[in-house]
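Re: your question from the hallway

Yes, I did run it. Sequences:
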Amino acid sequence: MNERTKARISFFIYIGLLIVFDTSYSFMILNLFLAFAALELSFLLRLFHVQNKREIPMSVLFFIVFLLLSPNAIYVVTDLIHLNVFAFDFKEGLQLNEWWNFTILVSGVILAIYYYVNMIKQVYFYSNDITSAKWLFFVFILLSSIGVFIGRFLRFHSIHLFTEPVTLIVRFIEAIDFSAVLFISWMSILQFLICWLFLDGTGEAHDK
Amino acid sequence: MINDLQLYLTTGFILLFVSQCYITYILYQQQHSKLWFFIGMMLPLGMNLYIYQICYIEKQVDNDFGQLTGKERKQLRKAYLFVLAQYLVLFALFGGYVTP
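Structure:
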């Protein structure tokens, strides 16, 4: 079974589970949908590769939408903070409800990491030139970290860049301070770590 | 006077209708089958194109869209952009309720 099929099967099973069973993390339906949508769009990157000047507007529009959606994959990792709705006081014995919800949330995060890794592969292989691929990869990770910061702390969605672009940019500039830079750096380190662990050999594959 | 919600809803409806017709046209033109015409018209929000992608496009070219003919490539690019536009309008509607 290829990675794409695995991603699809896992997504539909996960969403089905969240719809059918009672959990405290039903917001994961939307969050994982957005992460999965970003992955599916990444598979279309080559379709929107510009072949002549007339294709530029459509391709630019597609790349903008993809860039706006792509941070959603790594954003799901930060949803782990919602584990704090449960006490997890193990001295009180096994509370099944807590661990059921733990399983649901953590499996959603693992799936999001899987989608993220496959999405990054598509971004990395988009460019045929190894140097530009590395730059693209670096910029993509940095933009994703900024996207996570905007989504998590300024509470903006990707769509607000279309509906309220000025407000979003002004709020982002106002919010940038030392702590924000640290947070963005930590999110980038997290992404580099994931890539280093799960994309090992990508560079060699690119050279072939 | 027309408000934002009405504007988004009207735009969304027109987009949905036009893109359903366009995707159905592509699917029918490629497959010449009533089943694909039915799938094209009945499944909204890009599900029709998604199923077609899984059943045919990926089997035909996997991820190498260079194998498509110029016409097929052009039609697919348009169809996917229609689907994206549908989601953008949907998110714009949804975004109105989740404004920080």
